[in-house]
Design brief:
Blueprint: H1 3-18, H2 39-49, E1 60-66, H3 69-76, H4 95-106, E2 117-125, E3 127-137, H5 149-157, E4 160-164, E5 177-183, H6 186-198, H7 206-213, E6 220-224, H8 228-235, H9 244-248, E7 253-261, E8 266-273, E9 303-310, H10 314-327, H11 331-345, H12 349-356, E10 360-366
Antiparallel strand pairs: 1-2, 1-6, 2-3, 3-5, 4-5, 6-7, 7-8, 9-10
């Protein structure tokens, strides 16, 4: 791993998380539409497509889910640690060491588990604490079998674990699966079992279920925006921490599918889900037709990251934006700033933007030789 590669990946991830508005596709334009699925229907879709998430406690701040353990381990142990540092937690524990050991075992002794569904959720309890869940078919009772090597690795790393046999008895979508739970926190492991038994998982949150239901079977990261402050302060540079307030009001939940991830490239696509309210920034795009991106054709080769926002109508965007800042209590300050610009510059920024008929806005970080 080289420094430039790490910077590219971190810059790309930061840009997407902070400015994901430019790539957001909303799940539904009107919550009241007769075609919108009910809360129960959303839960059924989400629980069927990603069954092991039925064991994730409702206070999850962020979730990584993959259809196979092999893919999930690749993400949390990626060579740049773009995601690995996040899904190892922010406190002191041997969880990263445990994940590294699991990575080796999945290709060897525990290879029978490599195609098992897996999720890693993050929970705040003073620190960001991880919970790893694996849904396994035919998990052996004989502890000398290779699948048990992961349990032995947890013991060795002092990671708490529990094995929940016949999880399908509590959650039908898990059928005859065994759920393995691992975490530095014994409390989280036990909470996973209680969620399975009571049916009170994070998927019972309607907006979480909507975000999960909005994506296919790709590996995906689900972000609970109510924990944005904790996530940003735990994993991002101090200069980005001022964005936590915006992220919290961006949406209820966002789903980020991992389209491509290599040492040199990170491609994610996002979908957000929120209750019908002008107080969520992502909702202001409802009713605004998307524009066409052309800026990629002029970005220089040294571009490390770029965030783009396409606007089919600046008038519609500004009207919707004013509703948003009014809902979050910032409209008087916004209007005062516009008036100051009008007095000092002769024209208010919103009038100027509308006159230019801007179609796309881009913020890029470009590597400059010697810079």
């Amino acid at each position: 791993m080289n420094k430039r590669t790490l910077l590219i990946c971190i810059s790309a991830l930061s840009a997407l998380v902070i400015l994901v508005a430019g790539a957001v596709a909303l799940l539904y334009s009107e919550k009241s539409s007769v075609n919108s699925p009910s809360a129960d229907e959303l839960y059924e879709i989400a629980a069927s497509s990603r069954p092991v998430m039925n064991a994730i406690p409702s206070d999850a701040a962020m979730i990584l889910h993959c259809s196979t353990m092999r893919d999930c381990i690749d993400v949390v142990t990626d060579t740049t640690w773009t995601f690995g540092s996040m899904f190892s937690g922010s406190g002191k524990s041997n969880f990263r060491k445990f994940l590294s050991r699991v990575s080796m075992l999945v290709g060897d002794e525990a290879r029978a588990l490599r195609n098992s569904e897996m999720a890693v959720s993050m929970h705040y309890s003073g620190n960001i604490v991880p919970l790893m869940l694996v849904s396994a078919s035919g998990f052996p009772k004989d502890s000398t079998k290779g699948e048990w090597s992961i349990v032995r690795a947890a013991d060795s790393a002092r990671i708490a674990y529990r094995i929940f046999d016949n999880a399908g008895d509590c959650t039908p979508t898990l059928k005859r699966k065994t759920v393995l739970a691992f975490s530095p926190s014994e409390t989280l492991v036990m909470s996973a079992g209680r969620n399975l038994e009571a049916g009170t998982s994070v998927l019972k949150d309607e907006e979480c279920a909507a975000a999960v239901a909005s994506v296919g079977n790709e590996s995906a990261i689900f972000v609970n925006h109510s924990y944005s402050g904790k996530i940003v302060s735990s994993f991002f540079a101090s200069k980005l921490r001022g964005q936590a307030g915006f992220l919290k009001s961006f949406a209820d939940w966002t789903a980020l599918t991992i389209n491509d991830m290599t040492d040199k490239r990170l491609a994610l696509s996002g979908t957000s889900a929120s209750f019908e309210s002008p107080a969520f920034f992502s909702n202001l795009y409802k009713g605004i037709a998307p524009g066409t991106s052309t800026v990629k054709s002029v970005l220089p080769a040294g571009t490390l990251s770029a965030s783009m926002l396409q606007l089919s109508s600046t008038e519609s965007y500004i009207t919707a934006y004013k509703k948003y800042i009014d809902a979050v209590g910032r409209l008087p300050k916004y209007n005062a700033a516009l008036e100051t610009f009008r007095i000092n510059g002769g024209v208010a920024p919103d009038v100027w933007v509308n006159a230019l008929k801007i179609k796309e806005i881009c913020k890029a970080n470009v590597s400059v030789p010697g810079g």
